[in-house]
Amino acid sequence: MPKISLKSNVLSKNDHIAQEIRSQLHSLGIWTINLIGSPGSGKTSLLEAVFSYFDDTGTCAVIEGDVKTDNDMQRIAARGVPAVQIQTEGACHLNAEQIKNKLSQLPLTEINLLIIENVGNLICPVAFDLGEDSRAIIISVPEGVDKPLKYPSAFASADVMVITKIDLAPYVDVSPLELKTNALSINPGLEVFCTSAKTGIGLEKFANFLLHTRKKSTQQNE
Amino acid sequence: MPKISLKSNVLSKNDHIAQEIRSQLHSLGIWTINLIGSPGSGKTSLLEAVFSYFDDTGTCAVIEGDVKTDNDMQRIAARGVPAVQIQTEGACHLNAEQIKNKLSQLPLTEINLLIIENVGNLICPVAFDLGEDSRAIIISVPEGVDKPLKYPSAFASADVMVITKIDLAPYVDVSPLELKTNALSINPGLEVFCTSAKTGIGLEKFANFLLHTRKKSTQQNE
Question: Is residue B72 part of a domain?
Fold first, then answer.
């Protein structure tokens, strides 16, 4: 069974590095979240918008993952948040080694929240632990209500779901409630946020989740 | 270099089967198009809408690819178009062997157009020839203008781009013209269609492309 062994080895190596990352970040009092979503689901726009609810963006950093371009890193940096870019040059997901190699470029002694924005893909990033404490699925209203049923692993592996572009619901005949119901049928434990970067709906609540959770985590680690 | 050899072998086997499929379909006078796009880019809705411009949907068949569910096959079949579903059970793209195994379930002697709707993913399906004559990238307006720059391989490997959900442009501050310009900067040869399944914009033009091209192809093969 060479295919299975090869895959297992890759994942085992990745998981080992991910655990090292988690230990290192915990020892520094840093809480980490991994954002997974389709291309154009609004991951970067969500972050841009949510940062305006942070009193001090200097206590947060972002690792951006994309096949090509550093556009997203530039957008985040323009908000005063330390950011680095990983360009995968064709690869369909981030892996733990790439994260490990970028940590030295971040102000780790100054932050207590690390946000990783994965490559736009609802399938491949799911299998790769990046050392995160929390995993969020970002799904936009125009993608439709059936995506949790079609891509169940993504939703099953997450503990948070952020529905974005909720302002578009009236124009696309998509019910955010039905989308939420479908996601909860896959993973009843999902914490769900409904947001719009355009109108501001739900942003403060998601910002509070990030700020509260990292604070709780930091206190636990002290 | 074991990694490269393994990947080369997989692709070489896939390409060999794809060439067999292409030969078989050409011998039957069937023209094939492979639709690649993000989850929720509107591939199935585009097909549903475009079929209303076909005089005879019985001369067309669809192979649907999804990680899970046969929802899309059901939607296509409800339009009177022969359709079969491939559920990849976790895999991030269709491969030629899966297509080959499904051909016997299609009315090949009655059709002259085969449409393959790939798994929702803008990265992984690109490397896998399915025996198609044409490859179309389906991208929806809400995904944003920068996707051709971020996922260049998808756009470079296609000969057609269909922009969907163009009715949403005013609500998302996305310029379809800028999206088109970015795509053409990656691949100047792309034939571009701007469509809305909701308002009907551009559907007849895309239907005519499908009908005209298959007719031309059938005549060439006679």
Answer: yes
